[in-house]
């Protein structure tokens, strides 16, 4: 803990003064361009891997970068999604999974979660990814896990679309959805290409998009 407090003191001494104008500007308002949904994993740092500043990303993090489908009792993730789209007016949402994900490993290995009832319950929101991935052949346990991480990103994008605020923003053509998988060891990102449903290197295809919103009745 001392390292964290020392880090704060360093922030106050060095980083804050360098950005004092930015923080003054952000003191009473923020207009982030993007909602970034990713895992709580300590190795995934959204602002670092996208090189964004305070005020740029609205972030939701949880085990497995999960967005529960919209339902009769929407929870904290749903509220944050709704706020990001309907109030902050973000134009893009990224669902970002990652390599070596503990949540996805538990699902892929059918790890017994009897002693972790809250985790077991939470990971049910990834059930469609589990079922689809389990029905496929995989060359190795590693390949199975990598495929599940990708399938979960696809499943969470589908869950996202069940939210009324998302459906409306897509209908009105003011929202794009992105599905990414970040590789911790290489620092690379594979992005879901909507038309082909394939993951491609974002570095080679920087305009890759999972779903570009456009008015359904546009001429
Ligand atoms: Zn994870």
Automatic annotation (TrEMBL):
GO terms for biological process: carbon utilization. Binds 1 zinc ion per subunit. One of its GO terms (molecular function) is carbonate dehydratase activity. InterPro entries: Beta_CA_cladeB, Carbonic_anhydrase, Carbonic_anhydrase_CS, Carbonic_anhydrase_sf. It catalyses: hydrogencarbonate + H(+) = CO2 + H2O. It comes from the Bacteria. Its cofactor is Zn(2+). Keywords: Lyase, Metal-binding, Zinc. Zn(2+) binds at residues 39, 41, 98, 101. Gene3D superfamilies: Carbonic anhydrase. Coiled coil: none annotated. Pfam families: Pro_CA. SMART domains: Pro_CA. Its EC number is 4.2.1.1. Belongs to the beta-class carbonic anhydrase family. Reversible hydration of carbon dioxide. This is Carbonic anhydrase. It comes from Pseudomonas chlororaphis. The lineage of its organism: Bacteria, Pseudomonadati, Pseudomonadota, Gammaproteobacteria, Pseudomonadales.
């Amino acid at each position: 803990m001392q390292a964290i407090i020392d880090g704060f003191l360093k922030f106050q001494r060095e980083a804050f003064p360098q950005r004092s104008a930015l923080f003054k500007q952000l003191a009473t308002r923020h207009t982030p361009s993007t909602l970034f949904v990713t895992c709580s994993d300590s190795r995934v740092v959204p602002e670092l891997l996208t090189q964004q500043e305070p005020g740029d990303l609205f972030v939701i993090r949880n085990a497995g970068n999960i967005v529960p489908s919209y339902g009769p009792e929407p929870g904290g993730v749903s509220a944050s999604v709704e706020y990001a789209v309907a109030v902050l007016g973000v134009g893009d949402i990224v669902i970002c999974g990652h390599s070596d994900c503990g949540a996805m490993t538990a699902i892929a290995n059918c790890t017994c979660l009897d002693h972790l009832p809250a985790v077991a319950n939470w990971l049910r929101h990834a059930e469609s990814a589990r079922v689809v991935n389990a029905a496929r052949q995989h060359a190795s346990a590693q390949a199975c896990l990598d495929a599940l991480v990708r399938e979960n990103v696809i499943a969470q994008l589908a869950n996202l679309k069940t939210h009324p605020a998302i459906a409306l923003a897509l209908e009105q053509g003011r929202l794009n959805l992105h599905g990414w998988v970040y590789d911790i060891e290489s620092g690379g990102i594979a992005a879901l290409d909507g038309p082909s449903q394939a993951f491609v290197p974002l570095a080679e295809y920087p305009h890759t998009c999972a779903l570009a919103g456009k008015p359904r009745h546009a001429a």
